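Lab notebook page, bench 4
Experiment: in silico fold of construct C2
Operator: M.H.
Input chain length: 337 residues
Purpose: comparison with the prior construct
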Amino acid sequence: MGAIAVVLGVLAAALVAFARERARRRPHPVPPGHRPEIALPHAREFELYHNALSLCSMKTRVCMAELQVPYKGHAIDLIETGSYETLSRRFLAVNPAGTVPVLVHRGHPIYESHEQIRYAAAHAPPGSPALVPADSGLKKEMERWIDLSSLTEDPIRYPERSIGNAVPRLSLQIFAAMIEEIPYRNIVEGLLFHFDKRRPVLFLTLKARGLERLHTLTPLMRMLTVGRTHVNTHLDALEKQLGESGGPWILGEAFSLADVSWMVILERLRQVDNEHVFIGGGRRPACTAYWERLKKRPSYAEAILGYPHPLIDHGIQRLKQVKAADPVLRAALEGVS
């Protein structure tokens, strides 16, 4: 009986400790935009909490590079890049929502990347390149194209609303490759603390099934199919816009925040080995030329290629390798009948 009492006591203590930890690490939504009422420790005027793989992080990094604004960076892991650092107490003190990126200006956070790039453009030092047109009509058009590239409140339910909502479905391919290198114990942490249990369940499923059998997961293949459909629709709109504006950029002659936003979308197509599915080879020639111009901008090298990660490199190469070895898998992932 004494041993049983000890075991029960240990279990009770563990449950109490877990409950306390969960209470301290419970994410909750925060309003987007600048939060002047929140003060965070900081060493530089601008600081950025970001992740190498995160599309939204890439967007804010590209914006800061285009504006030529220096900042102190804090690399934060997502489970895709190794661990749920976004669920740590330290990071939740920066962003209670547990998401990246977070731009901090003079100690005050700005949440959500589409708000961060607008804020950064408005508060860049004198002499920074202008990324927002003075003309009100062009500015309104720029805002529309930012929205069309951004994540909305529920990308799973509304992939049609923006290419920012549709592209994450295609990202499942590289996630399935990257997750091979991440221990189960790291993924399970999400079941304990992540506010959306669908994500850790998805990643556990991807790891258990393996990249080679990804096409046997019927629900995920449906997600990919829907994602491709809406990516095609939004790229058709971009092709039309580039033709009507005369290029070389979305609004015409002036590079803007709209182009910052779309650069990272096209980069994700490259990372998931889908460039040839949507552009190139005669498909959408205006988009193809636009993407080539984007890749030549210094901000692309600085803010995207300048933040390599071994798991991203593994995912890109592994995905290409497996697709090359299995034509059936390749056809399923690329939507080729």
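Observations: The chain has 15 helices and five strands. The first strand starts at residue 33 and ends at 34.
Next step: discuss at group meeting.
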